[in-house]
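G., the chain you wanted modeled:
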Amino acid sequence: MSDSSHTFVIDNVKPTISSVAVVAGSNSSGNVKEGTATITVTMNESLSIVPKIAIDQQGSTDISATDMTLSSGNTYTYSYTVNTANGGTYVDGTATITITTSADLAENVMDSNATNTFNIDTVAPNVIISDLTASLTEATSIDLSFTSSYVGS
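Predicted structure as tokens:
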């Protein structure tokens, strides 16, 4: 009989989220407009159970816990459809992402995480000219300048 050695790892640490990103088209600011946004969650280790995502959005329509899709390695994605605000079921504002029901390879179950948000803004900006210091006569064009502090979709 020969001696043999075995190694094993004791893992009693729950998996955690390393990062969350919300991207709509080329916009990665966390502000989304009507259309499709991709939510990407990267975990700190490999999982044996696919994480679920829920989205608590303004209005009366929320996304209940739904499986995410493994993208590669420890990264999961969810394709989220942003609907135009209608004043009832869909309302612009802050949406909260909750990630739950996931476990690592040692079956340590992660704590629910609801600390990530993004902003839904489906209303186009409206420009109102409220004061013209010069009177217009038969000019074919005028020059306007403005500033905006809004960054996003």
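The chain has no helices and eleven strands.

Shout if anything looks off.
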